[in-house]
Amino acid sequence: MDFAGADRLVLTFAYPVMHHDHFIGVTGADVPVGEFEALLTRAIMSTPEPVAVVNREGRVIVSNSADAFPAERLRGDQESSIAISSLGVSWALCRLGPTTTLSTG
Fold this sequence. Notes:
The chain is mainly beta. It is built from one helix and six strands, in the order ββαββββ.
């Protein structure tokens, strides 16, 4: 929930600010979850192949496939994946293959 009390779910992205190897502070931004999800969804819906953004545990965050729902865990062969490290998170964009299976556990 956001700190200001608007009762909105937000993601807080924060990054340390360094100057010549000295920590000077933290910069950050709150992004409403709905807007972030819409941004990710728009980005992957233009992909012609079935893909999913997953976290480090392999749980689906967002997907363009009706076969991969949020919170399900990918198992098996993800034909290829690309790390998404520029956001400071341990996420990956995975191409869903025919041997990819999903689990809610």
